[in-house]
Amino acid sequence: MSGFGLKIVLFLLAQAAALGLVWNQLELEHTEQLLVENLKQYLLELRQRHQMIKNLHCRYHKKGSAFSRLAPLKLEIFSHDPYVVIYHDVLYDAEMQGLIDSTRRRMSRSMVQYEIRQIEISEQRTSKEAPFTEKNDPQLLKRIYDRLKDMTGCDMLRSEHLSILLYDQGGHHDPHVDYHDLYWHPQEYEYHPFGDRQASVVFYLNDVEDGGETVFPKLQLVIPPTKGSALMWHNLRPWGEGDPRTQHASCPVLSGYKQVAIQWILQGTRDLVTPKDALSKRLRSLHSHMGHAPQQ
C-alpha cells in the first residue's frame, strides 16, 4: 500500500472514531482493492448514520434583486443556529465551465493557516487552487457577485477573491474553521482591515462520482456535492466571535474529482465589527435573547 493510501485510511479511521462508529480492525497490509472497499464502506455508514437528520425545510428565496423576485432561488435550510443553508441551481453550466476553464492552467497547491500569519503547505489539505478575478472574465464575475448579493444581502466589492479549488482523487481537507478568530485577537485587524470571515459560500462546479462530501461533525451534517448548488454558512456569532460549531471538512474524493468555487464574505462587506464595539454588540445580542434590550 502506498504511503498516500495509508494516510487516507488513517484520516478516515480518525473521523470514524470521532463520530462513534464501530469498526473491525483493518489489516493495513491488504490490497489496494480492500482499501477502496473500506473507504466506500466508511462513507456508506457515515451517510446512513446521518440519514436521520432531516432538512428543516425548503422554500424559495425571493429577496434581493428584481431578477431573484422573478426567478426566486431554491433554498434548503439545514440549521438555523448556526445558519447553514444550500441554494440549488444557482449557476448555469456555461458559468461553471467558464470558472473551470479560466483557472485550469493556473492551479497551485492550497495552503493551510496554522497560526495567524503562519501559512504553509500541509497534508491536511491536498487541493489545488487559483483565484478568479476581473482580469479573467469581468462579466462572469459580476453575474456571480450579483447572485451572491441576492443570496446573502452582502456587497462583494471588499471581499476576498473568489477561489477555484480542485480536489483530485484522494483529495481532502481535514476538519477546520474558516474564521481568523479576530474577536480574540483584535490586534490582527491591522492585517484584516475588512474584518473576519462572516460567512462562507461554496459553489459545487461538478457532480463527483463518489466521495467529496462536506461534513460538519459538531452539527452532524453531511452534504453531498451537487453540481450548480451553493452551500452557505455563518462562521461568526452575532457579536463577532467565531462559532466553533462551524468546524467542517471535505471528505476524500473516492472516484473522479471535485471542483468548487469558494467565496469568503468579510464583516466589512456589510457591518464591520471593530474591537471597540464588539462587546456592546454581544451585550445587545444577549439582552435580546433575554427578552429586553439594554438602554442606550
Automatic annotation (TrEMBL):
<keyword id="KW-0408">Iron</keyword>
<keyword id="KW-0847">Vitamin C</keyword>
<dbReference type="GO" id="GO:0005783">
    <property type="term" value="C:endoplasmic reticulum"/>
</dbReference>
<keyword id="KW-0560">Oxidoreductase</keyword>
<keyword id="KW-0223">Dioxygenase</keyword>
<dbReference type="InterPro" id="IPR006620">
    <property type="entry name" value="Pro_4_hyd_alph"/>
</dbReference>
<protein>
    <submittedName>
        <fullName>GL24183</fullName>
    </submittedName>
</protein>
<feature type="domain" description="Fe2OG dioxygenase">
    <location>
        <begin position="158"/>
        <end position="268"/>
    </location>
</feature>
<feature type="signal peptide">
    <location>
        <begin position="1"/>
        <end position="20"/>
    </location>
</feature>
<dbReference type="InterPro" id="IPR044862">
    <property type="entry name" value="Pro_4_hyd_alph_FE2OG_OXY"/>
</dbReference>
<dbReference type="InterPro" id="IPR005123">
    <property type="entry name" value="Oxoglu/Fe-dep_dioxygenase_dom"/>
</dbReference>
<dbReference type="GO" id="GO:0005506">
    <property type="term" value="F:iron ion binding"/>
</dbReference>
<dbReference type="InterPro" id="IPR045054">
    <property type="entry name" value="P4HA-like"/>
</dbReference>
<keyword id="KW-0732">Signal</keyword>
<dbReference type="GO" id="GO:0004656">
    <property type="term" value="F:procollagen-proline 4-dioxygenase activity"/>
</dbReference>
<dbReference type="GO" id="GO:0031418">
    <property type="term" value="F:L-ascorbic acid binding"/>
</dbReference>
<dbReference type="Pfam" id="PF13640">
    <property type="entry name" value="2OG-FeII_Oxy_3"/>
</dbReference>
<keyword id="KW-0479">Metal-binding</keyword>
